[in-house]
Amino acid sequence: MYIEIINEEFDPWQKLVEYKRSQLKERTNIGACSVFLGTMRDINSGDTIKSMELQHYPDMTESYLEKIIDSSTKKFKIIDSIVLHRVGLVTPSDPIVLVATWSEHRDEAFEATRQIMESLKSEAPFWKKESTDKGFRWVEPETNQTDNNSEV
Questions:
Q1: Whether residue 152 has pLDDT greater than 70
Q2: Is 25 within the bounds of a domain?
């Protein structure tokens, strides 16, 4: 399991390749990898978004992310996983989050990646403030979209 909170622009694909090369090179039991990359849109709730500031409380956020990943790892028998999440000022098209899981079979990887991502969107302690043409506004967390209620 690898978690990183990043306060600057990053290349999610390069980070993924580096992690695979350094941590999973010798793993011969991996049969599947599922990857989700989330980027910032330039529109939300019908308004144009110029930028967004993502805030977090470091110790609390990392601990919470560990619990989210640990829950999915146990439930779906994941071999390994990585979560990278951006904080600070982001602009449209910037990568915000990368979630990848590795497992023996694709169903487990797909389901684990989805559960981790849904928990991040609905429960993780990140706060988002959007800059629009109308001013600033705080974004409410999304409700969990899966039938798999998180145990965190």
A1: no
A2: no
